[in-house]
């Protein structure tokens, strides 16, 4: 597993080599206790980003709760997305300037939280007008991510297979199941188990899924999508166009006390999302 610790992260070129080979890297302890406490409090605030939540049906009567927005804004979640440590690593992995495509909270409730089927993010984003797969996601463990509560699973190296065709399964889009089955016989399946404050950085063509939450603990992840600056969408889409990131120092995360002023963020109306079939969260 491509695993690093932020406290002694070392050479970014080595991180990029492993990212290019495996399609993902894990960075442990990228957020310290004060930072992850601030981040968790922001998501727990009833007047924060999760007040815009909606549900995605995932089969078997289970749902996943999402809240999705563009533009980082100036709240705690925005400080995370604009922080030097996140943006600098993504710039290194994508080879230059980047822009913030969107961010989302992904919540699986205890015992009833649903799954995500096998897919590639670029399988969605291709349909939103991005010509190149030079895009990535940073998924931050706001809560502990375990096998029991539905952590991310990846097929190591599957980003090298190119974009697969995707079709709807329940409320989600799924990569070609026959092709995925064959790839599972060739590539190593990894469970991305994360502690609070860890993050996984992964390529837009990496095949991944996540299981149902079978535990008594919730699973909350904060996923931020970035694109190479030159990869502006050619489609009419409110989220998919280049807007420079105004970086902030890492200290801005713990120092930020804004959890409720979401000025600048534009939250997605699930009715306008062509990549999922949603239902409003109650």
UniProtKB/TrEMBL annotation:
The organism of origin for this protein: Mizuhopecten yessoensis (Japanese scallop)
Record InterPro entries: Phytyl_CoA_dOase-like
Official protein name in the record: Ectoine hydroxylase
Cofactor list: Fe cation
Family annotation (Pfam families): PhyH
């Amino acid at each position: 597993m491509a695993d690093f610790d932020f406290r002694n992260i070392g050479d970014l070129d080595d991180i990029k080599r492993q990212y290019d080979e495996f399609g993902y890297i894990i960075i442990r302890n990228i957020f310290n206790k004060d930072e992850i406490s601030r981040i968790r409090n922001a998501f727990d605030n009833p007047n924060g980003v999760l007040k815009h939540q909606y549900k995605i049906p995932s089969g078997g009567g289970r749902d996943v709760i999402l809240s999705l927005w563009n533009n980082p804004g100036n709240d705690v979640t925005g400080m995370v997305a604009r922080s030097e440590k996140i943006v600098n690593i993504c710039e290194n992995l994508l080879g230059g300037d980047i822009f913030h495509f969107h961010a989302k909270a992904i919540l699986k409730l205890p015992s009833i939280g649903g799954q995500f089927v096998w897919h590639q993010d670029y399988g969605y984003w291709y349909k939103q007008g991005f010509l190149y797969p030079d895009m990535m996601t940073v998924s931050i463990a706001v809560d502990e991510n375990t096998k029991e509560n539905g952590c991310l699973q990846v097929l190591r190296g599957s980003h090298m297979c190119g974009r697969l065709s995707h079709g709807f399964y329940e409320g989600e889009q799924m990569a070609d199941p026959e092709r995925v089955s064959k790839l599972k016989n060739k590539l190593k399946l990894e469970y991305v188990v994360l502690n609070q404050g860890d993050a996984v950085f992964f390529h837009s063509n990496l095949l991944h899924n996540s299981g149902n939450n079978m535990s008594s603990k919730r699973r909350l992840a904060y996923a931020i999508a970035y694109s190479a600056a030159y990869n502006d969408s050619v489609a009419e889409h409110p989220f998919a166009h280049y807007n420079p990131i105004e970086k902030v120092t890492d200290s801005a995360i713990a120092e930020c006390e804004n959890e409720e002023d979401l000025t600048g963020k534009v939250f997605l109306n699930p009715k306008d999302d062509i990549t999922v079939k949603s239902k409003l969260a109650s």
